[in-house]
Automatic annotation (TrEMBL):
SMART domains for the chain: AAA (SM00382)
Entry keywords, A to Z: ATP-binding, Nucleotide-binding, Transport
Organism, scientific name: Streptomyces pluripotens
Gly residues composition bias: residue spans: 259-270
Biological process terms in GO annotation: D-alanine transmembrane transport; L-alanine transport; L-isoleucine import across plasma membrane; L-valine import across plasma membrane
ABC transporter domain span: 5-252
Any one cellular-component term (Gene Ontology): plasma membrane
Coiled coil (UniProt feature): none
Phylogenetic placement of the source organism: Bacteria, Bacillati, Actinomycetota, Actinomycetes, Kitasatosporales
Protein known as: ABC transporter ATP-binding protein
Gene Ontology molecular functions: ATP binding; ATP hydrolysis activity; L-isoleucine transmembrane transporter activity; L-phenylalanine transmembrane transporter activity; L-valine transmembrane transporter activity
Matching InterPro entries: AAA+_ATPase, ABC_AA/LPS_Transport, ABC_transporter-like_ATP-bd, BCA_ABC_TP_C, P-loop_NTPase
Domain of life: Bacteria
Region ranges (Disordered): 252-280
Length: 280
């Protein structure tokens, strides 16, 4: 049986910059795989290739065994791939609810004539979209105002709205680009729980994340990128002890990755769970 997602020897170059330089990994159903590495390592570029936003220089990407390497974003989305962005991308002026309803349009199709004539079928479908959006907002635990403009929500809640919209597409594979960035400890703990509940739906998840406590606690496998190259791929335990990984992180000045400069303090060592559970 083929994996949900297979990435094989992916390369992406921008002029002289090798953003992704030989990345291979796969993700099964209900599996969580994290992609980590310093800023500029090529993590987001890999997501952009998987979603069809960038065309890889070489390599192969398959979804459920089907080659999607040269497919358009819309065709890849229709195959059940959904994502969130490193910098939250919502329709800021639109109500929270409408942002999530937008996700349902992938599978809840309106017919032009029904829409023009406002037929009972049109109204039923619109109601279904609204109900579905509320279900996903409940699922992500959004407590804020759903009728108000998305831009007025606190940042952590905007991130949840984005995840709800991605889930409203009913994806088989969900790509999360730094979902914990900007969240406080309590919010990170809730995110950990949310990611696990998404897996329970049977959804495969690829997680790009700098919070090592979160990564080590939630992932089945971890892929490590450094300057576009894959330097490790294994269980959290294997990766945390890998000399090449330790070297890449210790050799980095990147505050976001190394925290206050201490390898263990970043949550990468024995304190792994503390970063997520600090204020439990
Ligand atoms: N559209 C682009 N044009 C040119 N260079 C890019 C583009 N997108 C990313 N890069 C470069 O590719 C490298 C990897 O970037 P990125 O994938 O954003 O890294 P990460 O997400 O791991 O921080 C960086 O050197 C970045 O400057
Ligand atoms: Mg990135």
């Amino acid at each position: 049986m083929s994996a949900l997602l297979e990435v094989a020897d992916l390369h992406l170059a921008f002029g002289g910059v090798k953003a992704v330089d030989g990345l291979s990994f796969d993700v099964g159903e209900a599996e969580i795989v994290s992609v980590i590495g310093p800023n500029g390592a090529g993590k987001t570029s890999a997501f952009n290739c998987i979603t069809g936003f960038y065309r890889p220089t070489s390599g192969r990407i398959t979804i459920g065994g089907a080659d999607v390497t040269r497919m358009r974003t819309s065709a890849i989305a229709a195959r059940g791939v959904s994502r969130t962005f490193q910098n939250v991308r919502l329709f800021g002026d639109l109500p929270v609810l409408d942002n999530v309803r937008a996700g349902t349009h992938l599978w809840l199709r309106q017919h032009v004539f029904d829409a023009l004539l406002h037929t009972p079928r049109y109204r039923r479908t619109e109601q279904e979209a609204t109900d579905e959006a509320h279900r996903w907002l409940d699922f992500v635990g959004l407590r804020g105002d759903r009728a108000g403009a998305a831009r007025n929500l606190p940042y952590g809640e905007q991130r949840r709205v984005e995840i709800a919209r991605a889930l409203a597409r009913r994806p088989q594979l969900l790509l999360l680009d730094e979902p914990a960035a900007g969240l406080n400890h309590g919010e990170k703990r809730e995110l950990l729980d949310l990611i696990r509940r998404i897996r329970e739906l049977g959804t495969g998840i690829v997680l790009i994340e700098h919070d090592m406590g979160l990564v080590m606690e939630v992932s089945e496998r971890v892929v490590v990128l450094n300057f576009g190259k894959e330097i490790a791929d294994g269980t959290p335990e294997q990766v945390r002890q890998d000399p090449a990984v330790i070297e890449a992180y210790l050799g980095s000045d990147d505050d976001e990755v190394s925290g206050d400069g201490g390898f263990g303090d970043s949550g990468f060592g024995d304190t792994g769970e503390e970063a997520v559970r600090a204020d439990a």
